[in-house]
Design a protein that fits this description.
alpha+beta; Ribosomal Protein S5, domain 2; 33% helix; 325 residues; binds L-homoserine; 11 helices; seven-stranded mixed sheet
Length: 325
């Protein structure tokens, strides 16, 4: 089967937070912080990378976006070895906001669109999870909203949950980077049955509470014993923030993915945002951690095709007014 190849596509893909506390490698939520990718067939492969978050990203065929795009073409039986790729991202690297997952999802979606959408979203989810090894960040960036997912090594099953109305997100992004592999390296090989039960119950309750809009249950349901206690020593101030954020106006708080970003969920109607933001800044400041806070929303759309690439409007002009830098 041969597919029609477009002249070019642009996609917009959200950041994500993983785990939401107890849902280790299982729960994810898309966030209103974005990257944009443009992909065009070319005579010779070239890259245009914009923004501070792109520093150090390879500009040859080892580039992740290029490689992921080729995996789509291979799966679809299409030969498109040379690409012109443009990317801008507001998603900070190695901070626990799913930057690599957003790059993978953006590349899968752009490449699939470019060749006439031969692969289903569920197929893209399986391909993305095979690369990331866990479905939480990639699922959120692909589908938007809140994703509960399991992965059997080949296939990811999932349910997308609409984020509760009125729920906002505050993140505190420390200036230092923490790689996922380092943050996974401190986790134990085995856990006790009581810790496993502790997490299963809270993860189940959290999923049900988010589905039912029971914001009152989030604080107790976001507690975790599988990963956050082990990662706490790498993020000074984290334990206190997770413990005390609910009494400073948060619905609940968690380490965002593998960290070091800390995430608090808020009821936007409650008017507690300023107090909570001050609390996070104070605790991190006392620990000598320089961090920036950012108010976000759950993203509901996941990756979207924003336009065909046009000759008239340049890539950066096409996203002007949307990005934050
Ligand atoms: N669930 C993963 C972790 C997310 O916590 O290690 C990081 O990508």
């Amino acid at each position: 089967m041969s597919s029609p190849v477009l002249n070019g596509v642009r996609v917009k893909v959200p950041a994500s937070t993983a785990n939401l506390g107890p849902g280790f490698d299982t729960l994810g939520m898309a966030l209103s912080l974005y990257a944009w990718i443009e992909m065009k067939p070319a005579h010779q492969t070239k890259f245009h990378l914009y923004g501070d978050e792109m520093n150090g990203i390879p500009t040859d065929k080892t580039n992740l976006i290029y490689q992921v795009a080729q995996s789509v073409f291979q799966e679809a039986g299409v030969d498109l070895p040379e690409l012109e790729i443009s990317m801008y991202s507001d998603i900070p690297l190695t901070r626990g906001l799913g930057s690599s997952a957003s790059a993978i999802i953006g590349a899968l979606a752009a490449a699939n669109e470019l060749i006439g959408v031969p692969l289903t979203k569920d197929k893209l989810f399986d391909m993305a999870t095979a690369l990331e090894k866990h479905p939480d960040n990639v699922g959120a960036s692909l589908f938007g909203g809140i994703i509960a997912a399991s992965w059997n090594g080949q296939h990811a099953d999932y349910i997308r949950i609409e984020p509760p109305t009125g729920m906002g997100v505050l993140v505190a992004i420390p200036d230092f980077q923490l790689s996922t592999s380092k943050a996974r390296g401190v986790l134990p090989e085995q856990v006790t049955l009581s810790d496993a039960v502790y997490n299963i119950s809270r993860s189940s309750l959290l999923t049900a509470a988010l589905s039912a809009g029971r914001l009152d249950l989030i604080a107790s349901a976001m507690r975790d014993r599988l990963h956050q206690p082990y990662r706490a020593s790498m993020i000074p101030g984290m334990s206190r923030i997770l413990e005390e954020a609910p009494s400073h106006g948060a619905l609940g708080a968690a380490l965002s993915g593998a960290g070091p970003t800390l995430l608090a969920l808020v009821d936007k109607e409650a008017g507690t945002g300023a107090q909570l933001e001050q609390f996070l800044e104070d605790v991190l400041g006392e620990q000598g951690i320089s961090a920036r806070t950012l108010w976000l929303e759950p993203d509901k759309d996941g990756v979207v095709v924003v336009a065909g690439a046009s000759e008239e409007v340049s890539f950066m002009d096409s996203i002007k007014g949307e990005y934050t830098a």
